[in-house]
Amino acid sequence: MRGVRAATALPVAVAAVLTLVVTTGIAHSGQPASPVAADAGSPAPPSNSQAEPVRPGAVIAPSAARAEQEAAVAEVYAAWKAAFVRDDCRDDWYQVYSPDAYEPYVAEGQGYGLVITAQMADVDPDAQEIFDGILRYVLDHPSALDPDLMAGAQDLSCNTTGGQDSATDGDMDIAYGLLLADAAWGSAGAVDYHALAVTRINAIKRSEVHPETNLMELGDWAHPEWTPQLYWGSRTSDWMLDHFRVFGAATGDADWDTIRLAHQDLIETLQDDYAPDTGLLPDFVQDTGTNPRPAQGQFLESETDGYFSWNACRTPWRIGVDALNSGDPRSVAAAQRLDDWIQESTGGDPDQIGTGYRLDGTRYGTGSDAAFFAPFAVAALSDPDSQEWLDALWAKILATDVDPQRYYAASIQLQVMLIVSGTGLTL
Prior knowledge:
With about 425 residues, the protein is mainly alpha-helical. Helix content is about 45%, strand content about 5%. It has helices spanning about 10-15, 65-85, 105-120, 125-140, 170-185, 195-210, 230, 240-250, 255-275, 315-325, 330-345, 370-375, 375-380, 385-400, 405-420; strands spanning about 1-5, 20-25, 85, 95, 105, 155, 235, 285, 295. α3 (about 105-120) runs antiparallel to α4 (about 125-140) and α5 packs antiparallel against α6.
């Protein structure tokens, strides 16, 4: 979950921005097309999130009454907000606090915060104020390599620490969150959310998509001369197929279809060749230009870089939500492989889901964590035979309290609840 990028002989100015300590999915967004006003709060058009979401791949849902599901989401959101949303650095900022990351504020967390608060637009009357405060924080901490992306981490004083470069998944969630905000509040007010989203999407393509493989890079710092091995690496939890579809629709850029298909091809290859009995993906993939395969230990973060560990634990969610929202048969098949294996390996008992697996399904992590068990609920939604399993997972999620020292698990748990319950917006 935490790691240090290997030192590389670089010019001093470049090396200064490549010393960022990498954590579980750090990534960011950068300078605005127009600045966000500190008093942004002009009346917004009514949210369209009351419309029934269209989810072509949804074949089951939790058996609990919808009102009960919505109440559960609101309760977990309130606990998440109380534990992790802060405004103690500057009056016009909000930040998502990450006590279990390597720095107290990471871009991944700000991306999660934007997605969550936009999704709660119809529930929390303060959602837009918090969203805009997080957005101002994001815009005020740009990457030094691409100012339309965000620097990776800040200390308790909200000063950027280590390097000032990006990592990919936070950037993607920041852009996605801006599109959710446009859907929730419109872009005719003080902030043009849609324009900011397009700026970030274009920056992601420019600086975080490999020009030859069309796979997501680890960040804007991945470079053939500076970090040659890592330049040909990718993090599977950055393979957000549904985001790629939404980015293409928002920009009219057909390249996002090419990017999505490259990731779907590699998901299929990895499942077939390296995890035929489980469908599990590794945290990282190396040698993407020649022979893509699970990364060796210490490729970027730890000895488990080639295992289903603290990054890849998100892949059942990321693949599952594309299956849910698009109905794409390839995503449905990939999600169902994961769903079939986890049910069989646990005997249908979510308490048996571990916190780390080798790709053959051998469990090496002890204990239970929402970062691992909650994402499997999204993978279950497209499987008509998984109703009992989904209900068991939902019950376990509801029985899991928000731990104020575990931002990562709580943020994943809440986002899964939003998806599974159908609360909020579907783009």
